[in-house]
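Materials and Methods. Structural model of GNAT family N-acetyltransferase. The 148-residue sequence of GNAT family N-acetyltransferase from Mucilaginibacter xinganensis was retrieved and submitted for structure prediction as follows.
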Amino acid sequence: MIMNDSAFIKKGFHISTDKSLLNFEMIFKYLDQESYWAGGIPENTLRRAIENSLCFGIYFRNEQAGFARVITDKATFAYICDVFVLTEYKRIGLSKWLVQTILKHNDLQGLRRWSLATADAQGLYTQFGFKQINKPERWMEIFTPYRP
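The predicted structure was written out as tokens:
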């Protein structure tokens, strides 16, 4: 599925959920070496994660410029993760367009809960209604980092 926004389309960008278009090597390199949240991710782990997620790629003239994954049951819950835009494409609104596209995706309508975690992009996500977790004392986790 290709997502359209005429302003970005005119500039040569598009967003797609077609996994065959994903540049796995670029995604792996970014997440492993440049992200603060997935450093050290094993390649086979990322392959399984992509295989079992709804993935969104941003493309500029058919070269991948950004990425996001949504872990979801497509009925009640979605967790947005691994969101990034490559440095050379930042500050032109692509992250905002990507989040808008994710939230409008047909398979993700009517969900009871959306979730995500971020250390530095609260300003982006609050524009779309995300806020601090209500009743965080109810949330629990097991966290096992890729690198000790």
